[in-house]
Amino acid sequence: METKDPKIRTRFPPSPTGWLHVGNVRTALFNYLFSRHHNGALVLRIEDTDKERSRKEFQDDITEQLSWLGLSWDECYRQSERLEIHKTYLRQLLESGKAFYCAHSKEELETEHKRQMEERAIPRHICGQRDEGRESGVIRLRNDTDVTLSFADRIRGDITFDPQLLGDISIARELESPLYNFVVVVDDAEMNITHVIRGEDHIPNTPKQLLIQQALGFSRPIYAHLPLLLGADRSKLSKRHGDTAVRDYRAAGYMPEAIVNFLALLGWNPGTDQELFTLEDLVREFTLEKVQKGGAIFNEEKLAWMNRAYLRSLSIEQLASNLTPFIEQAGKKDLSTDFIKRIAYVEAPRLSRLKDVETNLPFYTETSVYDSTLLRWKGTQDYTEIIGHLKNVRQLLCDIPEADFYDMHHIEAVIMPYATAHSRGNVLWPLRVALCGSEKSPGPFEIIYVIGKTEALQRIDKAIKLLDT
RNA sequence: GGCCCCAUCGUCUAGUGGCCUAGGACAGAUGGUUCUCAUCCAUCAAACCGGGGUUCAAUUCCCCGUGGGGCCGCCA
After folding, report:
1. What value of ipTM does the predicted structure carry?
2. Which parts of the chain span the membrane according to its record (predicted)?
């Protein structure tokens, strides 16, 4: 059993350069689960040091989607507001000679890199200007370490690097513009981050950050590198794999609980057969020891299955209110709440995503034009027989009091004996087609239940008329 | 190319030397229920990357291959 350590602090540091995507959310989730499991704190840090690419709408998207998913944070910072702190440490390194200005041009560095690749040499920049005392250019950390760098990853064990392969690490474009590896180290230390839980694509950054930490005299946090989220081709999940933004899944009608549950199981599981977890369950069960090492493919079919499970756990009232915006979006804005509740009731077993409601919506809200031949069961039924059945069923429906139309099973109980007596297909197929005008649809009782007595009678009359002419 | 990480059914995974004729879930196939669609129920098919060790015994430990991935920015 792990002990609860209130001093544990984790962080989630997205850069606001695109819509928050599911890979980021998985990282955020694991940080959330770990910190909450230990009664610790989660810091949200907007990494907006790249002024060119950072945008306010993306930053808003981060907080909006995290909130929607139920992932809360305890503190929030914007890196761009911490420039003075970063500059202080930058000056410290410059003054102590641990960092220096490198005035080589981009072109020069590019040429050097190209040559190194061609010569199969180590791609690194060991700057010849270390001791020239220049006062402008890129600020680099002097790297003359020759001892092997090593850190204990909580998920992968010891990972070692040869620091000589790194060259002099760039830490700022200029004094006013510090770079990622430097800022991360300073902020993690300043914010007392105890556990750095991030994607394994950051493993190569770790030795650089270790070096910067040492130069600054900071203590080292515990690292845990998560397996990557993969696309179907097993490469790192990205935009080219299709919709990966949380807002897209939200717009399609995935439940936040399903997304969280699904993401948690990508790279982690408690070692049991349980698949459905609330966020509280996850917080209670989560440990880094159970985190997987290999990358996991983001399989939308399983997400859809899980979403179905969550949709079906909703009450009709809850489902109806979740469905309402999607029904409105499909162009049906004035439906009564009772009507929507009846749609929710019959659609519940058919929905993978809330947006799927638009598939059958026309059956409930519109009358359709169809060919009279569609009314024939198996395509061969006699018209006069169909007319007879429809008229009889119509009469049965007429005799049901309006109030009983609010019970689907009552409607079924009235019509079913008649249908059975005349072979169900002979009665129910034409009835259903009369009601919806389509080959495939929900059952006749379901449609009648949704549209109500008056509308049902009208549609049956219309079908009878169609057959009569 | 260099460095680093990883490796059980198509996919997500259980499995920490014998309980494994390898378990579950999604997807798939078949059958049943059924007026169509969906739901639901039952059944089936499907994996330990290869080769060496260690051991009485390896999916599990070690090594080497192979395969996959990540990173090599004055992006984060």
Report:
1. 0.96
2. none
